[in-house]
Structures are given as structure tokens and as C-alpha cells.
Design brief:
Blueprint (H helix, E strand, L loop, with lengths): L3 H7 L4 E6 L4 E5 L1 H19 L2 E9 L4 E8 L7 H16 L5 E4 L4 H20 L13 H7 L1
Length: about 150
């Protein structure tokens, strides 16, 4: 390879081909590398402005579906479905013809375990408190009990 420019372009992660024309250059990248690049440079900054984050999980070549994980304020937000379909999916499909859709990845084992623990804590805080505290109300803080005596 004689061209220093071609050598540098092939040094970019995911580049599989470079074609030089008289007045243009065509660079071919792997689909996953293009998806990750768009997520990092265009989509993640926009999602971060609203306090959220997005992570690439996988790309199914056969179906053309990209799986992503939304977190932060985007996780569980009612608008996240609109963001996913109208924003993220439209942009990826526009720039990468191989992408046919975007879906949120299901929670993995560690996320499920964390959600279970959070639900336990939440139920203790809402209705439980300590046993014997009376009428399903949370138990008073020990210092508050001491001061009220």
C-alpha cells in the first residue's frame, strides 16, 4: 500500500476498505463500528443532556436490529420509547442502511438482582419499617424517640 492517507484510514477501527476516485474517497467500515461511532459521537451526547446514557449491546446481522441499554434518567422514563424509536432508530437507519430497527436490551442478571434488592428496600421504606412499630407506619428514628421522652 503506497498511499500514506490510505494507511492512516485503515488504522481507524472498523475500516475494511478504502476506494480513491478522482474527486472523492469512499471508506467502508464494519456495521458494528459505525453503530458504535454514531452512538458515541451523536446520540450519547444528546441523551446525556437529559441526564441519561446509552450503551451498545449487540447487532443482529440477520434481522438488522440493534440492541441498546438506556440508563440514568432514561431508564424507565415514559419518553424513552419515543427517544428510542423517533430519535435513535431514525438516525441509525438513516446513516447505516443495514440497521432495520432498534430495541432496548432486556436487563441482564446483575441488573435484575439490583432491581430485586431495590424493590425490597423500597417496600421496607414504604410500609414496613420495623416490626411492632404500629399501624404499618415506619418506625421513628431512635434519636426522635429519645427526644420525645
Amino acid at each position: 500500500m503506497a498511499s500514506p492517507l490510505a494507511k492512516r484510514i485503515f488504522g481507524i477501527d472498523g475500516v475494511t476498505g478504502v476506494f480513491f476516485g478522482a474527486d472523492f474517497i469512499t471508506v467502508t467500515k464494519k456495521v458494528v463500528a459505525m453503530i458504535k461511532e454514531l452512538l458515541e459521537t451523536r446520540i450519547r451526547p444528546a441523551v446525556a443532556e437529559d441526564g441519561g446514557d446509552i450503551t451498545f449491546k449487540e447487532f443482529d446481522v440477520d434481522s438488522g436490529v440493534v440492541m441498546v441499554k438506556l440508563s440514568g434518567s432514561c431508564s424507565g422514563c415514559p419518553s424513552s420509547t419515543v427517544t428510542l424509536k423517533s430519535g435513535i432508530e431514525n438516525m441509525l437507519m438513516h446513516y447505516i442502511p443495514e440497521v432495520k430497527g432498534v430495541m432496548e436490551a432486556p436487563p441482564d442478571e446483575t441488573e435484575e438482582e439490583g432491581l430485586k434488592e431495590f424493590q425490597k428496600l423500597d417496600s421496607q421504606l414504604e410500609g414496613g419499617g420495623k416490626e411492632g412499630s404500629g399501624e404499618g407506619k415506619p418506625a421513628a428514628h431512635p434519636m426522635a424517640q429519645h427526644l420525645s421522652n
